[in-house]
Design a protein that fits this description.
Layout: E1 5-13, E2 16-21, E3 24-30, H1 32-41, E4 47-51, H2 59-72, E5 77-80, H3 86-95, E6 99-102, H4 104-108, H5 111-120, E7 125-135, E8 138-143, E9 148-153, H6 154-164, E10 168-173, H7 185-194, E11 199-202, H8 208-217, E12 222-225, H9 227-230, H10 236-245
Parallel strand pairs: 1-4, 1-12, 4-5, 5-6, 6-7, 7-10, 10-11, 11-12
Antiparallel strand pairs: 1-2, 2-3, 7-8, 8-9
Helix pairs in contact: 1-2, 8-10
């Protein structure tokens, strides 16, 4: 059985890691490379950087951050935010990222998934889906940092992303993001059961038991958190200890 992964997420704005609630109310929490080093040394299995307000002008800042991270961190890391073209994917991978996450641009231009997968391999392509509940058992894909409801069914979009060549889905619940009441289990379960590629659960983690619950009640391959790690509320070691104690297959911190 493949070990479940614990992944800290670093939302980056203007070169600094920030955190908010329901995608708003952002506050600075630190330098991305220093935080990445700390998490790597603390037992994180992977890292995800999301440039949440990426623009063309900021791209050089992100590429420089990726290079610095690759020089200092020795676990896999994914970078996303503002990825619009195959050239963006190429630049980030060449700078040292192991995987590239695409969100809004993939919705607008699904061929970006296919082209990236064909050129670099599915293992390098992560499709990020921000989903918001619109009815019982139904979620829509939200783009532009949680601002625009596309009307696209999130489950169907996950299936399409897989068909086009995505190697992994980063699934964030807009409803639970930053709330700390736990992962969106119905959403996570629905997506995991609809596709065969790994799913990273994201949005809502407030304590180690929330990690345990998402692994026990869904077949998510990994779970992600930001606030509880950035604020020092819990450590990666505590999260892994909680999961391991209850029989979840997890790498030791």
């Amino acid at each position: 059985m493949i070990a479940k992964r614990i992944i800290p997420c670093l939302d980056v704005k203007d070169g600094q890691v920030v955190k908010g609630t329901n995608f708003v109310g952002l506050r600075n929490v630190g330098d991305p490379v220093e935080l990445a080093k700390f998490y790597s040394e603390s037992g994180a299995d992977e890292l995800i950087f999301l440039d949440i307000t990426a623009t063309h002008e900021q791209r050089d800042t992100v590429v420089n951050m990726v290079k610095r991270t690759a020089e200092n961190v020795f676990i896999p890391f994914t970078v996303g935010g503002g990825v619009r073209t195959i050239d963006d994917v190429t630049r980030l991978l060449k700078a040292g990222a192991d995987k590239v996450s695409m969100n809004s641009a993939a919705v607008r231009n699904p061929e970006l998934i296919r082209k990236s997968s064909e050129r670099f391999g599915a293992q390098c392509v992560v499709v990020a889906i921000d989903a918001k509940k619109v009815a019982e058992g139904k979620w829509h894909v939200i783009v532009n940092g949680g601002r625009i409801d596309t009307g696209i069914d999130a489950i169907e979009w996950a299936k399409e992303a897989e068909r086009l060549g995505a190697g992994e889905i980063l699934l964030t619940s807009v409803d639970t993001d930053g709330v700390k009441d736990g992962f969106d289990l119905p959403l996570t379960k629905a997506v995991v059961e609809a596709i065969k590629i790994p799913v990273i659960a994201s949005g809502g983690c407030g304590n180690p038991e929330h990690f345990l619950k998402v692994f026990q009640e869904t077949n998510a391959s990994a779970a992600l958190a930001a606030s509880i790690f950035h604020e020092g509320t819990y450590t990666i070691k505590e999260v892994k200890g909680c999961c391991s104690k209850e029989g979840v297959n997890i790498r030791e911190a």
